[in-house]
Amino acid sequence: MNLIKRILLSSFVLTLVGTSVGANAKAYKTVLVHGFQSQQLTAMDPRKIDSDGEAYWAEYWGGLADERIDWPSYERVEGKIASDYLWPKLRTMSEQGVCQPGCIFLTHSTGDLITRYIIDNQANWLENAGLEPLNIVATFDVAGAGGGSELADLAVNVANGLANPVVEAAVRAWLGRSVGQTLGVLNDLKVNNARQIASFPGDRTPRLRFVADGDLYFNATKLFLPGIDDSVVAAHSACGANQVAAFDSCSVHVGMDGKLTSQDDGVRHFLPYHYPMLMSDNYDHYSVILNQAKGKVTTANTSINVAPNKSVAFSTYEEEKGFWLWKKKYRYVRQSDNTSMSALLFAAIPE
Fold first, then answer.
1. Which UniProt keywords apply (predicted)?
2. How many angstroms separate the CA atoms of 294 and 280, rounded?
3. Distance CA 17, CA 186 (A)
4. pTM over cut 0.85
C-alpha cells in the first residue's frame, strides 16, 4: 500500500472513530423520528419503510443516532401508524432498555406530531404491557409540523377537486407529484386536525424548537403559509405557538435574522413545555437536517435545563451593523456561520 493510500485510509478511520466517540460521549441516547415522505403515497410498500427511514437521515444524523422510529406516510397517526409501527418499536426499545439512561428524540417536520402522540401514550401502553416506560428527557423538534401545515389543507382540497390551478401548482411543487387518492397522514397534517391530536400530553417533556425561514420551490408555497415559514411549515407550528397566526419570529425580542429589536408579531404564548431555541433565515425546511452550513443562526433562548445538572445551551455573541443612527445590534450563535444547524444541535446534546 503506497503512502497516499495509507494516509487516506488513516483519515477515514479517524473520521469514523471521531464520530463514534462523539456519539458515545453523550449522556443520552438519540432517537430519530422522520417526517412526511410524499413518495410513499404512490408507492405503498411496507417492505420499504425501514430503507426509506434510513435514507431520510443518511446525510448526517443516521451515523450519530442510536435508534430510529420509522412509519409510513400513507397511514394515519391514530390508526396503523400507532398500532403497527409505533407500538412495536416502543415495546422493543423498552425491552432492550434503550432509554434507561434517558433519550432525546430528534424529530423533523411531521415527526414532531408523531412524537407528541408518543409522549402522550407511551407510558400507558408500556405499563399496560408490564414494561418500563421510556425515559424521554427532551425532544429536539426541527422544522416541527406538530401544529400542522396549511399545505396539507391545500393538498386535501386538491384531492377533493376544490382547488384552482395556482393552488394545484403549489401543492405539486411541494409533493413533487400530483395529488392522488391516497392521502394518509396528510389528513392528520391539516392544521385543525394536527392541533387536536394529543393536544396536551400529561408528560412534561421539554419540546425544544429549531426553526427556519428559508426559500424552496421558487416561493410557490409561501403565499399559503401565514407569517414567516420554511416553505413547508409556518412559524405558528415550528415555534410551538398555542394558536394559529401570522408570526414573524419565535421571540418578541429577536428577529429570525438575529436582529435584537422588538418583534410585534413574535410568538408570545406557547404550547405547554415548548421552548424555541435556534432560529435562522438562512435554512429551509430540509436543509436544517443536513450537515451543510447555510449562514448565521440566532437564539430565541440560549439555554434550558432538561434534567438536574444537564442543560442544552448555545454560546452567543453580539455584533453591531450599520452606522450612527442606522446602527443595529444582532445576536448570533458562535461558529454558526461555518457550522451547520444540525452540527450545532448535536454539539448541544448534553454529555
1. Signal
2. 9
3. 40
4. yes
